[in-house]
């Protein structure tokens, strides 16, 4: 009998030892998060992540931005996304609209220097990462929490493909919570930009008016329009419109330090990739123009043939590089050249 009692006591001690202490209820978590909101977001440092994002009994929706804002990391995308995420959070909070299930919505920032453990829980090795953690109505009994959690794809928002702006991210919030909030930005900066643009336009108009004959003489020059044509042609063939809309990274860098300028997928591109392809196109175009408009007018026969040959070689090399780049992006394409 005594032995049985000792076994029961030992089992009870093991169960108690395997539980967390001082865990919070759902209402306490909501109250605590509301008290920690600063500029629309909550800074998740230390053990906060496990208690508010991993433990059960979470009667709220949670959007978390993983960043690496330290200067030593040189994460330019983090510097771009972080203020937009703050605008997103403030806009949703200003709407004062609960989620479709009536629960609160919180936004948090998990910086690498402040909480490396949270990165380890999800296996994140890069930043920024924007994730969504839905409500969990399971009662928190104080059990030990998992140390590794693999998030499904629909809980991870890609700032590279889905957008870095608050206007793009708010669609993700609407999809998860049903809240249709308008993005609210400070109009002071917009007014300052508008005033600056109007001032510059006024100075340009005044300058043109006082020097009208000189300006018209300059505009009649063919070289001016040739340069403008090259500019628009380069912008169109380099995919700069895509880069302005999608805001892709300049290039990709792997863990071993290898830099990749060309995106492996056919419908996506890096900024440097567009510049390289645009350079190939411009080189080919310039070679054709020089060969057809200038080289043929050279009276010196040997010099004329040398320039024609150089232009033809430049065109063929540039064209070959363009074909190779296209074949790399589209493996199904078989080139004859």
Automatic annotation (TrEMBL):
<keyword id="KW-0812">Transmembrane</keyword>
<comment type="similarity">
    <text>Belongs to the OST3/OST6 family.</text>
</comment>
<keyword id="KW-0732">Signal</keyword>
<dbReference type="Pfam" id="PF04756">
    <property type="entry name" value="OST3_OST6"/>
</dbReference>
<keyword id="KW-0472">Membrane</keyword>
<dbReference type="GO" id="GO:0018279">
    <property type="term" value="P:protein N-linked glycosylation via asparagine"/>
</dbReference>
<feature type="transmembrane region" description="Helical">
    <location>
        <begin position="275"/>
        <end position="298"/>
    </location>
</feature>
<feature type="signal peptide">
    <location>
        <begin position="1"/>
        <end position="18"/>
    </location>
</feature>
<keyword id="KW-1133">Transmembrane helix</keyword>
<feature type="transmembrane region" description="Helical">
    <location>
        <begin position="188"/>
        <end position="212"/>
    </location>
</feature>
<feature type="transmembrane region" description="Helical">
    <location>
        <begin position="224"/>
        <end position="245"/>
    </location>
</feature>
<dbReference type="InterPro" id="IPR036249">
    <property type="entry name" value="Thioredoxin-like_sf"/>
</dbReference>
<dbReference type="GO" id="GO:0008250">
    <property type="term" value="C:oligosaccharyltransferase complex"/>
</dbReference>
<comment type="function">
    <text>Subunit of the oligosaccharyl transferase (OST) complex that catalyzes the initial transfer of a defined glycan (Glc(3)Man(9)GlcNAc(2) in eukaryotes) from the lipid carrier dolichol-pyrophosphate to an asparagine residue within an Asn-X-Ser/Thr consensus motif in nascent polypeptide chains, the first step in protein N-glycosylation. N-glycosylation occurs cotranslationally and the complex associates with the Sec61 complex at the channel-forming translocon complex that mediates protein translocation across the endoplasmic reticulum (ER). All subunits are required for a maximal enzyme activity.</text>
</comment>
<keyword id="KW-0256">Endoplasmic reticulum</keyword>
<dbReference type="InterPro" id="IPR021149">
    <property type="entry name" value="OligosaccharylTrfase_OST3/OST6"/>
</dbReference>
<feature type="transmembrane region" description="Helical">
    <location>
        <begin position="305"/>
        <end position="328"/>
    </location>
</feature>
<protein>
    <submittedName>
        <fullName>Uncharacterized protein</fullName>
    </submittedName>
</protein>
């Amino acid at each position: 009998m005594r032995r049985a009692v000792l076994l029961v006591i030992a089992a009870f001690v093991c169960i108690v030892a395997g539980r967390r202490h001082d865990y919070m209820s759902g209402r306490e978590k909501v109250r605590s998060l509301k008290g920690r909101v600063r500029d629309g977001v909550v800074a998740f440092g230390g053990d906060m992540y496990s208690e508010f994002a991993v433990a059960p009994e979470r009667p709220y929706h949670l959007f978390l931005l993983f960043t690496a804002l330290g200067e030593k990391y040189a994460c330019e995308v983090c510097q771009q996304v972080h203020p937009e995420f703050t605008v997103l959070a403030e806009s949703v909070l200003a709407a004062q609209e609960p989620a479709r299930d009536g629960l609160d919505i919180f936004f948090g920032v998990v910086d690498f220097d402040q909480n490396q453990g949270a990165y380890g829980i999800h296996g994140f090795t890069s930043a920024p990462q924007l994730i969504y953690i839905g409500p969990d109505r399971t009662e928190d009994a104080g059990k030990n929490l998992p140390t590794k959690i693999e998030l499904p794809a629909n809980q991870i928002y890609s700032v590279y493909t889905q957008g870095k702006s608050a206007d793009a991210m708010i669609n993700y919030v609407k999809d998860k919570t049903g809240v249709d909030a308008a993005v609210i930005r400070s109009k002071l900066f917009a007014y300052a930009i508008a005033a600056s643009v109007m001032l510059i336009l006024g100075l340009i108009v005044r300058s043109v008016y006082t020097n009208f004959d000189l300006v018209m003489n300059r505009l009649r020059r063919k070289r001016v329009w040739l340069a403008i044509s090259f500019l628009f042609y380069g912008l169109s063939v380099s995919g700069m419109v895509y880069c302005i809309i999608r805001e892709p990274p300049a290039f990709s860098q792997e863990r071993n330090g290898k830099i990749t300028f060309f995106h492996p997928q056919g419908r996506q591109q890096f900024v440097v990739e567009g510049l390289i392809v645009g350079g190939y196109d411009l080189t080919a175009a310039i070679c054709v123009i020089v060969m057809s408009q200038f080289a043929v007018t050279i009276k010196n026969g040997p010099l004329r043939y040398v320039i024609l040959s150089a232009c033809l070689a430049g065109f063929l090399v540039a064209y070959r590089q363009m074909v190779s780049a296209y074949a790399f992006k589209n493996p199904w394409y078989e080139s004859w050249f």
